[in-house]
């Protein structure tokens, strides 16, 4: 464990988060599985342990301040530092991500989406940043979406025009701004911060039937950004090795 890198993946008990933890674990990284309940976290960790992966379950509701503080304490006490933080946990509107909606968006929907997709990520990252600074090669990956691209949405014939759900898309655009500004703030530290677009993946959020990408491919961008070398990019928006426009 002494020389083993440590990664925390939020929302990692299923979907892209679990697959990301699996792929990192297969590369010899110790993975901390963050999930809203300790039971879900431990069950997911047990599956990975059964595959020979060093995995640990952690109760982490990212919207809960006490859970965020407890996560920092747990990592400090058990590992001393954190090499990789993958802010994977996120939510979509409870109604649908596939029905365009802007002016009629309810305040409650904005609150629900932004609390998880932006504010909790900022707060958790800030809580864990002292531990990431202790790493020799800290990496922060924010799970964004191409639906947060202002450039692509503003195109006259935008390929994502059918998915203009303001609450979700705006939360991802705001998350991208956090990526840009945090990367600039940390540019002298060696810590790299990037946004990842996983693709349209077969998950509960992405739609199991419509989505063209499997879970394995959906995790690849996060894993790649988590393992960037010294010359790798920072402050970028990436999908499968290619830079996307903000």
TrEMBL record:
Protein origin, superkingdom: Bacteria
Keyword line: NADP, Oxidoreductase
Pfam families on file: adh_short
Transmembrane segments: none
Similarity remark: Belongs to the short-chain dehydrogenases/reductases (SDR) family.
Protein name in the entry: SDR family oxidoreductase
Source organism of this protein record: Mucilaginibacter rigui
